[in-house]
Specification:
Length: about 60
Amino acid sequence: MSIQARLDTLTEKHQALEAALSEERSHAAFDEQKISDLKRQKLAIKDQMAMLSTQTLGPDQRPS
């Protein structure tokens, strides 16, 4: 899998986690543990995306 394909996959997962977070927060009695787990997963994916972007573009050319 190319780096760009991996970035695209991670971006899709990141967006899906954001949607899941929004859905969970919309419930009157949302689960704090589930929200915490989703946030942790989302952050891990963001870190992976940053690492791959740095490998692809270099540290000074990463999109913000």
